[in-house]
Amino acid sequence: MKTTNVVTALLLAGVSSAQTPVGFTPAVTDKLEVTFGSKNVATGGQPLTKADTARQPTIGISGPADGTYIWISTNFLNPSAGQPATYLHTVLRDFKASGAASAAGVTTLTTTANGPVAWFAPQPAAENPPHPHRYTNLLWAQPANWQVPSAANTMLQNQKLGFDVPKFITAAGLGNPIAANYFNVTG
């Protein structure tokens, strides 16, 4: 009985620590703080409305942030209707800490960059039956003097539908993402 409880607790701890959806590659365990106005994405898969997500969110990470960062947002279209596809929404570079960590230990990150792919708000169409579109947000440490390599730039400009995150990571010369979060929006 005690062994079963320990195993169950470990399984639940693993599930609760995942910040990317089940089956998403790459899997990330550290939380990216994503806040739309006053609505914080507290848990992965939290439902939000198109109105909630109309403006670019504020992002942040736990603890100090002494580097430069890249943020990507992708949308997994129609995951429950049998026709899944990933769509690239946003890639912004040059995020830096905008001050010291808050009392809650979160450092807000800001950028003046509007690319290489500008903010594109979630806008899923009304569907019957309605189903959530999953928006996954990933954060990387940006390599020093990073410029978008040609192969990665081609993906960003020409392969938004069917965007392959692992392939982009390789083409862009990025390591593993350091933080992530995801939310759902229904049309």
UniProtKB/TrEMBL annotation:
CDD domains: PEBP_euk
Record's signal peptide: 1-18
Keyword Cell division tagged: no
InterPro entries: PEBP, PEBP-like_sf, PEBP_euk
GO molecular function: peptidase inhibitor activity; phospholipid binding
Any Pfam family hit: PBP
GO BP terms, alphabetized: regulation of proteolysis; regulation of Ras protein signal transduction
Keyword vocabulary terms for this entry: Signal
Keyword Zinc assigned: no
PANTHER family: PHOSPHATIDYLETHANOLAMINE-BINDING PROTEIN
Descriptive protein name: PEBP-like protein
Species this protein is from: Xylaria grammica
